[in-house]
Design goal:
The protein has helices spanning 5-17, 26-31, 41-51, 69-75, 145-156, 187-190, 196-206, 208-213, 220-225, 232-239, 243-249; strands spanning 52-53, 63-64, 85-86, 93-95, 100-102, 106-109, 115-121, 160-164, 168-173, 181-186. It is an alpha+beta fold.
Amino acid sequence: MANDPEIRLHKEWLGFLQPVGLVVSLPALSATQAVVNRNVVELQQTLTTVARREPLPGDSKETFGIDDFPAFTINVLGWQPEDLVVSPESLAIALPDYNEVLTPTYAVPEPNGGWMMLVHVLNPGTELDNAGAEDSKSTGWHASPQSKFERLLKETKVYTGLLCNGTELRLVYAPLGESSGHLTFPVQAMCEVSGRLILGAMEMLLSADRLFNVPSDRRLSAILDKKPEISKRCLYQASRTGTRGIMGFTAWLPSSRASHQ
């Protein structure tokens, strides 16, 4: 498997993105025939159109972000309008001890009933891992948006979700009784030529085909469900592959992006 060109490509994009915890694994990607699309020029043009933002005063650099999430899913991921619905009240989770209610923004229905995925869209620029990021709305539980979203996924038993703050799109997997993991796609990077590989990886995992059309044993849920079978060491080794690429890619990480604008 180590000499498989597709596996090498998976190692490369996993190395760029540095997933936290176990989200996807090389054996799971191979078993589900998940292949990164190398030809994403047209897809990137579509993304830049959907995600283009007005430049800041005095800044000529183009910036990109997901400000209309439904439009992003339809135009970039190929979902149908009915694949994303406003979250029903039944998915709200009350936390009486904290005087707080956790509510997703949207939900993705399963074709045969139930829910495939929850989506929470935050205010633009909200830090996903900052415990004080939403303190203005929280009266009790001062946890990060990521921690709150994980709790929501576990409590609703809809273990897969997307967390979006405009500049980042994060795939979260939080199964009950297991450690959570997440994988973050920076939108600005995916709109640049150097970010086409991770754009292809995002499409591979989140496109309409992967979620709704391929056989059930090859869908995103199958990729994620296979992760308990894989050792942490396997994924760690995969994520450390391509150190030089990681160093060159840190310009797109939230902590360092500002210095490159």
